[in-house]
Amino acid sequence: MQRQVDRLMAEMTLAEKIGQLNLLAAGEGLTTGAKQDTPLAQRLDAGAVGAIFGTKSLASARAMQDRALAGSRLGIPLFFAEDVIHGHRTVFPLPVALACSWDLDLVEETSAFAAAEAASEGLHQVYAPMIDISRDARWGRVAESPGEDPLLASRIAVAATRGFQGRDIAGAGRVAACLKHFVAYGAPDSGRDYDNASLSWEDLLSIYLPPFAAGVAEGAASVMASFNAVNKLAMHAHAPLIEGWLRGRTGFGGLVVSDYTGVKELTAHGLGPAPVVVARALHAGIDMDMVGEDYLAELPALARDGLSAPDAGVAFSADEIRGLIDRACHRVLSFKAALGLLDDPFRGIGDTEAPSRLSGRKLARRAAARSAVLLKNDGVLPLDDATGVALIGPFARDRRNMLGTWAVSGNSDDVVSLSDAVAALTGRMPDTAWGANIVADSWLERRLNVHGTTVEADPRTEADLLLEALEVARRSEVIVVTVGEAKEHAGESSSSLSPALPEAHHRLVAALKETGKPVVVIVFAGRPLALGSVAENADALLYAWHGGISGPEGVADLLFGAASPSARLCVTLPLHPGEVPVSHAEEPTGRPFPGVFQKFRTGWLDLPDGLTRFPFGFGLGYGDMRYGPPRLSAARAHAGDKVLLSLTVENAGPREAVETVQLYASDPVARITRPARFMIDFKQITLSPGESREVVFELDAGQFAYPLAPSLDAAEWLRDPGQIILHVGPNSRDTQPVELTWLS
Length: 744
Ligand code: NOJ
Description:
By secondary structure, the chain is α/β, with parallel strands linked by helices. Helices cover about 30% and strands about 20% of the residues. Among the domains are: about 370-580, Glycoside hydrolase family 3 C-terminal domain (Rossmann fold, 3-Layer(aba) Sandwich), CATH 3.40.50; about 625-740, Immunoglobulins (Immunoglobulin-like, Sandwich). The strands form 8 sheets. It has a 6-stranded mixed β-sheet. Strands 4-3-2-1-10 form a 5-stranded parallel β-sheet. Helix 21 (about 535) links the parallel strand 17 and strand 18. Bound molecules: 1-deoxynojirimycin (NOJ). The site of 1-deoxynojirimycin has 6 residues, from loops.
């Protein structure tokens, strides 16, 4: 393979090499047979495109490949990429939802299914998994993320990479994964999308980088850089992180692509005009330039003349630039070789069959039921098939929002609405009140202008809709009310000042509660929302996210007991929008101090009393899980020893149940402040009614290492001997402690 690449490199002209670094969007694409003279076609004819993303049909991919081969003197093929974020045609729950399953086999399975669908349409690379840790609910891209915890995110990165790539990215039905966005894109200042991240190197190393290290160790073939700057340097120019950490420290040997016009945007970051930022991006290790075409425009002159820009503090000789072009081109060609495209340019374009849509639907439904988190249940759930249900609220009959953000190849016609799902499951049509403009009310209404027609507006007033809702509620035995946000309210460029349920939804739930009937609240959302009084008014509360084509069917299964809830929050739900960013792994401070006056105790003067915290890792089931006391195989150990922590978990309930046993640790004395608790392991088990199981965690000293990093270059991982407190339980709060001492 390497020889093939070297042979091509030896024969290529400078222009041909630069052409390979150009990554374009398909737009309308091309059609076979038609004589087309689009800008894309012209580029293909000139051999000036290395890859294309966003093809919409196999025929178009074939036409573009034909054209590229004809335009390339050496017959170098394109590869095709797409945003396959939570499924391709078969849309699965949002990544943040699927992460709540904590089910790594399921993540692998859905990724493998998405890969097979994508591959059957001629795609070779997917821009996934997105593995940005996010602790700020204002940031709309939480929807695409694995949540707030580095260990969970790392395991998801591994599972998704394995699902997409299998053992070989050139295997049938497999595609190359692209880990994104490198890095700390999920930590923007103020939660505003694209904003820069200012954080300690220790946080970068221990929170934001581990999922990338894990994905790389699993063999992820590519990485996408992020739009933001990290500690003052924009990531598309961040040589210390890309060439230094990613390639130097993790040994990553794959392809790095820019994000959409990310190279061009370096100018707006204040890093210099076009030639300067092109040289900086290439030097930093960005191999392909997505859409901006700045590599194509600037590299020929840079390769001829070199660059001296003292104002930006950079200088490159022409030889150095040519060396960097060779380096990037070699990586692009190696990627194509690994995809099998240098042997067969049409590999993947029409030679793999799509998996059956029916099996996709079944998987999507199971995934949806595994992703919805039951937060409260005063005994009302599961419902009986014969129960008279009033199904109320803006998502009762909704289909389009269920797909969630970043479902570029999804089709809302594939969604079964909640009311249809309930009818199909119970054989009875629920009594439904539909109130679209309850979503459009208050703060959401202002947003309509930002994204166009994002939310269907019901012409009636809120008062009319409430009357209708109460009328339907009166005829029922149990009220199921749907609240939340529209799909456009989460996602890229959809940050929100107020990640909370709209006021109108509070009014709706409060009015329904007044009826005295049990109220089951279902939240459909793309981000963790502060639930406020809705959580208090609910008799049962299910956080269902945007669950994809079968999201509502998964919810119906949970409501009527055809499936048992098992999901656990992968993010802390904020008590109030003003509380974010928030996570379970916060650091201790000197205050509050026992005994001092009230003001020091609450943290927030204006946080309403009595709100329920739904912490990271939290979720209920229909079973009755009982945890025995944790036992250690040794209370004192030396580095190099393995210590076992065991406990018995019993399902005392009447149904089979999945339990996620979580293990946290705190390190009370260290050289720097450590998080008050951090997760070090979790295990998922399935228990039949009455079954007990011994759960065993293996501990080693390495799990307690932490970075000390006065600078990125000077970073070192340390571990001190001493006391560690382990906390084991069903979530990050309700744990039992046990102490362990490392003697060395
Ligand atoms: C911009 C987004 O940030 C990235 O996630 C996506 O893959 C690219 N656009 C391509 O659509």
